[in-house]
């Protein structure tokens, strides 16, 4: 899978650390999706060819116990899918390049700006693998998804209460 990624400079809401991140152009919508580690190593997923994509989607729907809003799916599905993906060089992969802060692990950003002058990275990425996920029993998978979803939903509700936006 080939990606053209844009280099961003981001700042963590929790600890104020600035760090570089790589994101896909919004023009890529509907195609393969990039996953990135904190060290900016890259893998890709093609939703229609990945065997775990639909499984994760179904587990999320079952764990939710009510229909999820589009904004809830958009915020929480990436975190749930990240959890099914094998780590790369010992690091977790994050869908859309929404990496955790390298300093404190928080996912929220106080700023996210393209590097100026604009910088791009053209990259050929191998597909993600799910070896560890596939070793889990059905009930372990369910528990993992329930946990990730409830953590995500409580964060979203916090953001709404604080007047924020879940895509934040
Ligand atoms: Zn931080």
| Residue-averaged pLDDT | 92
Q: Using DSSP, what is the number of strands?
A: 7
Question: How large a portion of the residues is in β-strands, by DSSP E?
Answer: 15-25%
The CA-CA distance between the termini, in Å, is 28 Å
Name the helicity range.
25-40%
Reported for the largest beta sheet, the result is:
4 strands, antiparallel
* Class per helix and strand makeup: alpha+beta
Describe this structure in words.
With 168 residues, the chain is α+β, with helices and mostly antiparallel strands. It has one domain (2-161). 33% of the residues lie in helices and 23% in strands. It has helices spanning 51-64, 70-82, 131-135, 138-161; strands spanning 2-12, 18-24, 33-36, 42-45, 94-95, 109-114, 120-124. Strands 1, 2, 6 and 7 form a four-stranded antiparallel beta sheet that branches. The chain has a three-stranded antiparallel beta sheet with strand order 4-3-5. Helix 1 packs across helix 4 and helix 2 crosses helix 4 (138-161). The protein is globular and about 45 Å long. The chain binds zinc ion. The site of zinc ion (ZN) has 8 residues, from loops.
């Amino acid at each position: 899978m080939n990606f053209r990624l844009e280099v961003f400079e981001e700042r963590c809401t929790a600890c104020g650390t600035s760090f570089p991140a790589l994101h896909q152009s919004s023009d890529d919508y509907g195609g393969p999706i990039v996953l990135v580690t904190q060290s900016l190593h890259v893998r890709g997923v093609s939703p229609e060819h990945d065997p775990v994509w639909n499984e994760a989607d179904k587990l999320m729907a079952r764990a939710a116990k009510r229909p999820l809003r589009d904004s809830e799916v958009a915020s929480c599905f990436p975190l749930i899918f990240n959890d099914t993906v094998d780590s790369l060089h010992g690091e977790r992969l994050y869908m859309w390049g929404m990496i955790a802060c390298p300093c404190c692990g928080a996912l929220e950003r106080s700023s996210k700006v393209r590097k100026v002058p604009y910088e791009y990275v053209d990259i050929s990425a191998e597909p993600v693998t799910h070896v560890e996920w596939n070793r889990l029993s059905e009930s372990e998978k369910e528990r993992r998804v329930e946990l990730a979803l409830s953590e995500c939903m409580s964060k979203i509700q916090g953001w709404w209460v604080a007047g924020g936006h879940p895509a934040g």
